[in-house]
Amino acid sequence: MRALVVLLSLVFLFSSIPTFAEADEVPIKRAIVFAMDSVNALSFRYAIDNGYCPNISWLIDHGAYFENGVSVFPSVSLSSDFSILTGAYPGTHGILGWMWYKRSEERYYSIDGARIWDQLEIQKMIDAKDWIEDGTETMFEVVESSGDSYTSALGTYAARGADTSVLESGALRAIASLFTRASGAESSEGPAQSSLDTIARGDLVELYTATEGEVANYFTLHWIKRILFEGVVDSLLFFNALTDVIRSREQERSLIYLWISGTDADGHLAGGRSEAMLRSYQIVDAKIGMVMSLVKALGMEDETLFVITGNHGIKGINEMLFERTGYRDMVGVYGPILDSGLEYIGGNRGIYLPEAGPEEIDALARAIIKDRFVDFTMYREGDVITVIGDHGATSIEVRRWGGKVPETEYEYRILEGDDPLGEGDELAHSPFNGLQPEELNEKGPTPIQYPLAIERILGLFCSPNAPDLVITIGGEASGQHGDLGYEESVVPMVFSGPGIERMRSAEPVSIVDIAPTIMEVMGLREPGGCDGRALSIQGGEEGYSMPLLPRAYIPLYIPLFRYGVSLFCAFPVLTGVTDLILLMPRIGRIASIGDIRAFLPDPPQYIGTYPAELFRTFVL
Q1: What is the phi-psi region of residue 529: left when phi exceeds 0, alpha when psi lies from -120 to 50, beta otherwise?
Q2: Do the Cβ atoms of 373 and 477 come closer than 8 Å?
Q3: What domains appear along the chain, each with residue ranges and CATH number?
Q4: Looking at residue 101, what is its pLDDT?
Q5: How confident is the model at residue 276 (pLDDT cuts 50, 70, 90)?
Q6: For residue 221, is pLDDT > 80?
Q7: Cα–Cα distance measured from residue 199 to residue 203, given in angstroms and rounded to the nearest whole number
């Protein structure tokens, strides 16, 4: 019945052009948030400026576009997801990465979000919403407390307070069960990191340089991941978004939050500035256009706020070889840890050293910084954070911890050499064997290389559960995101709706500003524990009339038909499959094994044997 209602609504799209009220007559009752995983702000800007995303471009032209939204630290999905929905830094909401140690409970937390086939991991994804610190609220909870409301968490872990959560749906569990049966995979307890699963067999990892077979497996697994996430999961989430839009029609306040995974799959497969990434934006844009058309058809455009953002960035160079083999490059990071003989517990982008004193931690930090792949090592002692870079060291002496600490509440001093967090040189945008679109690599921007670095560092270390030693991996290293660099940190942020000012800004703002901004536009209070500030985006045009039909690359211009068929059949996976088939000629060339054979020594060279736990700490 639900599918039939949606199908009739889509048909209604062609026969009804509703009028819109003045922006000051009807308040914003509904916010629809599209959170794209692993968005490279440079390629997104290129896609917008070169016609790849006509629907998103319409929203930008009729709203506020912040080109340099800055993620949190560590810039990984779990921490970022909670920060968007709470408006709080990881140190405030308490989700410090994919893995961390909570000292007060003597408990180790870890999630592997890629292992949807693992029933134990799925349960962790569901439980994560209850792991946030006391006093921190989600936007869902604020909207629910406002009275007659409807909230939907589509794919996000930070689902506390939402009426519905797709992570707890029967459909996702069915997909996980089928995947488990097909792959023969088994559930496992304990710290996990999917990029290590292919070679980790027990507590130790025996390292060799990459083999041709490993690279072949890498490509195969990534294509499976692309079909699974971009084709199946994203289509399931958009299917739910359409039905949620209809369900929200009669509510006084509604919040629909949709996590989009396909961009992450393409970014890891081909690089953040690849042609594959541009095609992924096309698919997302067509689906967003579908939601826009439904909102238009139901006469809700004058009361709906559209928000498009990334949760974190992703490195632009093509590192298809390295996600599963890149930990081999960072032996210089692990060696000093093992040589120290100190007891350690792995954490995301850091380690816990329960038996180490300040001098031992400092010595370890200075040994690890010598590795060519490390950008910074940092640690906190009392009210002072020491940051060590390749050519200098600084201290941040904090007078007030917690929240978004203003400059008046800390003193920043250079201890030796150059300022490691200062403005960097022009970012390197060298193509990987010429496989990136030339237009994206002709010249790079000259932004602050580590935008909002100090407040992001403070936003991690304000937690009593922050690692004793934090290690950030730089631009030379393999891996895709997680650190402070521009490309893996910066994302687009778009707000569009009636009364929203038309503007385009290059000033850095934070993803923790999203929640208070949405709540202010909806006339609600900010979430408890919020660190962000509401951005000044109101006071724009009163007339806001979206186009009736979604715009798209021609093979995708029939989303109404494809979605209608799949909704009628209650089988949204069909839309994902057709998306990929129709776009296959335009995905762009992915490097073959032959393209990277020159990088592989023959025979493979033995590097060493190391504890698997260390690699799960640093490799994404």
Answers
A1: left
A2: yes
A3: 2-17+32-87+116-183+212-319+487-586 (3.40.720.10)
A4: 93
A5: confident
A6: no
A7: 11
